[in-house]
Specification:
5-stranded mixed beta sheet; Cytochrome p450; single chain; 460 residues; 16 helices; alpha+beta
């Protein structure tokens, strides 16, 4: 039986199989693979990657291994995780935006940051931020309501909404004029500097690539902007003795439980950038894909709306199990972080394969979540896989937030945000597509749509 075999339910209709990009030709050469990677890493994987346990190859003189077995992934991400670090191309692409924040840190600095930030993301801490999430969602619904009768861009709406949520949960104020400037930074970087070039892959990290010079100029402007955000929040102040009202209060007050050390201003800026960027872009992407598949599957959309209406005005996601299942299944088919790449610091043995220092280990949630050995009907949209009573998938076969010690610290925050936002939007509107052209996922930093389709919305 497959890991994710679903419970026995009456089958009354064929499940939706959303559009997916064609799989790469098995004879694709290194140059063709590099060209395809510039457009979308997803387009570099052929059928073998969806069927076999380990795909072994070579990458610029070093071994490369795609791992598709939970035991092997557990070994790399948990049992021997300290032997595996970020790859040089990953550092080149992400550090200009995220600096030395939690997502980029390694070793002792990472442990310090993780311990220090953990209290800010407990379920209890997240519950205090829910009013910020709901206020931004309600404003988005009002904005969409004003656009009824004309095509709407729900991708842009989700990006705007999650950015507002990120700003309010971080700083307790609406993004206002700062929001468009932040979006401009994200779009500029994503379209020009986040795509790896040949020299990014070839050169040692100590040798700057041509793109690195542009990335350094970008970072100067970016860190200056983040400084403006922090200065605006500090100017707003906080009443002495008042409880924390947002993530910024929690992060400023945070202390390493072992050393008592706080974040200095530079590191605080990198943590703020990490939380805003990692939070808003990935959740916006997940919500877009959820709305897209629900537009393709009206019966599932109606079932979700009925659940929300029966639950009433709730802030408790445990009362919305089907809505949560739709989010979980959406992130199975469209994992926001589609690829985890690691470089071996020293020799190891993984799934019977000898690993040498500097070999590249690839763990791709995109592949894992569609692997034919791990899932029944892997390409079908079936939220029932994640309903209470269904056998849960292996922890290392379903990992939209990663796994092991470096699992996303904001996973609970993101789930609460996504479930509550989707519930309120679908309870308010019936969502349909305005055209029949397929939307294809592409892998560039996150699992993005290749275009922003137009939707039609109507009040329920």
């Amino acid at each position: 039986m497959s890991i994710a075999e679903t419970i026995d339910l009456p089958i009354t209709r064929a499940p939706l199989i959303p559009p997916a990009p064609p799989r790469a030709h098995q004879k694709m050469g290194a140059l063709g693979r590099l060209q395809a990677m510039r457009k979308s890493a997803i387009g570099t994987w052929g059928q073998r990657a969806y069927e076999e346990d380990v795909i072994k190859g070579r990458f610029f003189g070093h071994g490369s291994f795609i791992l598709n077995t939970p035991d092997a992934i557990r070994h790399v991400l948990v049992d021997n995780y300290e032997n595996y670090t970020r790859t040089p191309p990953g550092i080149r692409v992400l550090r200009p935006m995220l600096g030395d924040g939690l997502l980029m840190a390694e070793g002792r600095p990472w442990k310090h940051q993780r311990r220090t930030l953990a209290p800010a993301f407990t379920p209890r801490a997240v519950s205090t931020l829910i009013p910020h999430m709901l206020s931004a969602t309600d404003e988005t619904i009002a904005m969409l309501d004003a656009q009824r009768g004309q095509p709407v861009d729900l991708r842009e709406a989700m990006q705007h909404m999650t950015l507002e949520i990120a700003g309010r949960t971080m700083f307790s104020f609406a993004m206002g004029d700062l929001g468009p400037r932040l979006r401009d930074f994200v779009i500029e970087y994503g379209t020009t500097l986040a795509r790896p070039h040949f020299f990014d892959l070839l050169l040692p990290l100590s040798w700057p690539s041509p793109q690195d010079f542009a990335r350094r100029r970008f970072r100067k402007r970016w860190t200056s902007f983040v400084g403006e955000l922090i200065a605006a929040r500090r100017a707003a102040g906080k009443a002495e003795g008042a409880p924390p009202r947002d993530l910024f209060d929690l992060m400023v007050a945070a202390r390493d439980p072992e050393t008592g050390e706080a974040f200095n201003d530079d590191l605080l800026g990198d943590e703020v950038a990490t939380m805003i960027l990692a939070g808003h872009e990935t959740t916006a992407t997940a919500l877009f894909w959820a709305l897209y598949v629900l537009a393709l599957d009206p019966a599932t959309q109606d079932r979700l709306a009925s659940e929300v209406q029966a639950a009433g005005d709730t802030q408790d996601i445990t009362k919305l199990p089907f809505t949560r299942a739709v989010i979980d299944e959406t992130m199975r088919l469209y994992p926001p972080a589609f690829l985890v790449a690691r470089a071996a610091a020293g020799p190891d043995v993984v799934a019977g394969h000898q690993i040498a220092a500097k070999d590249v280990i690839l763990i791709a949630p995109w592949l894992l979540h569609r692997h034919e050995k791990l899932w029944t009907d892997p390409n079908a949209f079936k939220p029932e896989r994640f309903m209470p009573g269904a056998p849960p998938p292996d922890r290392f076969a379903y990992m939209p937030f990663g796994a092991g010690p470096r699992i996303c610290i904001g996973a609970h925050f993101a789930i609460v945000e996504a479930v509550l936002a989707l519930a309120k939007i679908i309870a308010a509107f019936r969502v349909d597509l305005a055209d029949d052209l397929p939307v294809m996922p592409i892998g560039v930093v996150t699992t993005q749509p290749d275009r922003s389709p137009s939707f039609r919305i109507a009040r329920r």
